Batch of 2 targets.
Target 1
Amino acid sequence: MRIRKIAIDRVRVFREIGIYRSIKYILTRPIVILRSVIMKATHIYENIWVGSAEDANNFIGIKISVRGEDVDQEPDGREAISLLQMIYKGTDKEVKLLINDLVNKIDNANNKGATLVHCSAGIDRSPFAIMCWLVIKKGFNTGEAYGIIKGNRPFILEHYEWVDILRKKGIILRSIL
């Protein structure tokens, strides 16, 4: 049953990106081929897309970069939001301001049109940023938010330890943890 579900999920993903192959072909190819094909900007919710830094070069619309280090701008002048250092090292007030700033920027961009939230690979920080936006602005709990993201981009990393830090700081209250 599990193999059938994986096959159906892979067929669905391949159909969405315009590649039609048999289930046998999909199941017999290494995951590396799948990853290289699937790793494109992915629509998540409303006008929000998630992707990698490479996807940002080809995306037409608003781009928000979620960085691990402390920078305000990408080399090409796009706005960047530092996330990881602040979550682990920032005070409760600093983290709350950063997350609220991040969520507000995503929300404002969503209201203006197609928006790509990206990090270097599109599987780590950017899905987490979109999860924060879905929880804080759209009223989902963390499980529902990750379910929406993972349903559209199945290879994301779920950082429940980051969610736990934000919950302890009082930023995310609708957590399933």
Target 2
Amino acid sequence: MVAARVGGVALARDVSSWLVVLSAPTQAAQATRFQNKAETRARSMATRLRQILARIAAEEAAIIIRRETGLAGMVATQKAGIDDLTGELLSLLVDFGLRQAADAAGIAVGGRFDLRGSFERRFIEAKRVQVQALTESTRQLMEQKIRSVLRTSLFETPRPSPGELARRLQREIPASIAFNGARAERVARTETAAAMNAGARHGMLVAGVVRQKWIAIQDGRGRHGHVDGMVVDIGKPFVFERFRVEKGVPVGTGIFVELLHPGDPTAEAEDIINCRCTIVAAA
């Protein structure tokens, strides 16, 4: 097979035709390998993700506690600490995601990919938006927990002092409430699958593949089983009804959504969280 370069990307000249003729069992096996690799990588990412977000939660909690109890000192320093941590979080998501995307692009078309350029710029911008959403949701959850404890203190006699309230809140509301292991694994799994599918789609686009096929993991735990086997032109989105899993059973909602690929970052959270689907080239 003769190596070629298209748009700075290494690939094989006849690879797109090879992809198109993959049998259905081979496509399913490829999707399973893809999903297993994504699960393994997500677990490795989750630990680091949990550490960073727990530190962000602790800093946010300290700011909220000081504001709510009238102890305003050190807030500026803690806000600077949050800025440093959000930068660390962005670096983790970008570096990890781009590696997964490049690897998936190579798997999709049998070549090695350099994703610098427009793909990288779009990816980084999407991660900036996501980091803002993650830190804001963490702050909101911590604020809800803290205000719940403060409401309880209103009925105490004598009223606890601001210093006592601050100590109590720090003792009773650990950062792990806002970002526990399960949530970290969920975010890491979603991030990994999204990056790998974005990379696979980009690889197929560069290789000249014209149609893509959605492959769902059929183990009864997913909500995209009804999309399995859907084929669309690679420049167009998959359009399908949103399903929710209720008591272990996928149920249609009557709402139709559009995704460019599994894990599409422009989609609503409920359409991509924990999604284990993938895409392959189609005839």
